[in-house]
Amino acid sequence: MLRIREIVSVLEQVAPLCLQESYDNSGLIVGDPEKLVGKALLCIDSTEAVIDEAIAKGCSLIIAHHPIVFDGLKQFTGSNYVQRVVMKAIRNEIAIYACHTNLDNVLRGGVNQKIAQKLGVLPTGVLRPMPGIIEKLVVYVPIEQSEAVKNALFLAGAGHIGNYDECAFSGLGDGSFRPNEEAHPYTGIAGRRELIQEVRLEVLVPVWLKSQVFSALKQAHPFEEIAHDWLRLQNTHSEFGSGIFGTLSQPLDSEDFLRFIKDSLELKVLKFTPIASKKINTVAICGGAGSFLISDALRAGADAFLTSDIKYHAFFDAEQSMLLCDVGHYESEKYTIELFSTILSEKLPNFATIFSETNTNPIDYLI
Length: 367
What we know:
Alpha-Beta Plaits, 6-stranded mixed sheet, alpha/beta
């Protein structure tokens, strides 16, 4: 058995909570992170039927894609399904964890890459990269310890830029300080100003690694008081953001591509814009509601864009130059259950995960 915090930390290594959108509520919604659990039920939505399924199968943890709670609950009277789910989960000591837009906003191992795998699309980039998730650490280190400190920061995850790691900038300079009577300086005498040669070291750090990088810095740095700065950057990260785009293993005619989508994603119905007379090679993908990315898909040169929840007038935004496909919200995200299983089994091979058999799609179709 494992503690809930140990299980969810594996998911958050792939999809840190800081990557979720402002409207989202990913994370542990119900339950004690220190509770020991033996198996988890994996689902898209934690509905009342899913809670009943978890009870029947002896699962004390539910891992869902969509949060059951988006807004604050002010009453617990059972007047709607959200309240009833939370009340039943608490009553039966079942924890609920949601991994939603933070998993959507990951290129490698995220929801959109899973869809791409089903379609044989090789992802090459993010449609709308996220700004503000990178900080620069600037720290001053005695020249003798500069390599040791740099290596410690690299081991903690600092210094990654795209396909490169161990990236840093160093510059030499003179540092001065005067310790008082209560100080325990690395070098020097109390009451006397000291001048030593130092290295100004700069590395980039994603915000979710900030605490562990700083811990590594404190362990490796010889000074009692570490002169450093954290600078929030507007640079985007090439592997985190909304939607992805990539190329098919081989181009397809538009009609063949539509049939391929319908078969590959096991769709009952597929909505799309009028077919342009061209082959489909570059494909943009956004699981869930992604019409806000239509202009980004066009800028990326996509021949087709797969997403869902497209409103009537948004179909015109494809400008008759891109095949815009609405595959359905649930249909675009149903493989997230497989994704949860893959992430957890790689790091926790002895932890049991069960795929929910409850169909939580709130939409049906008359064929």
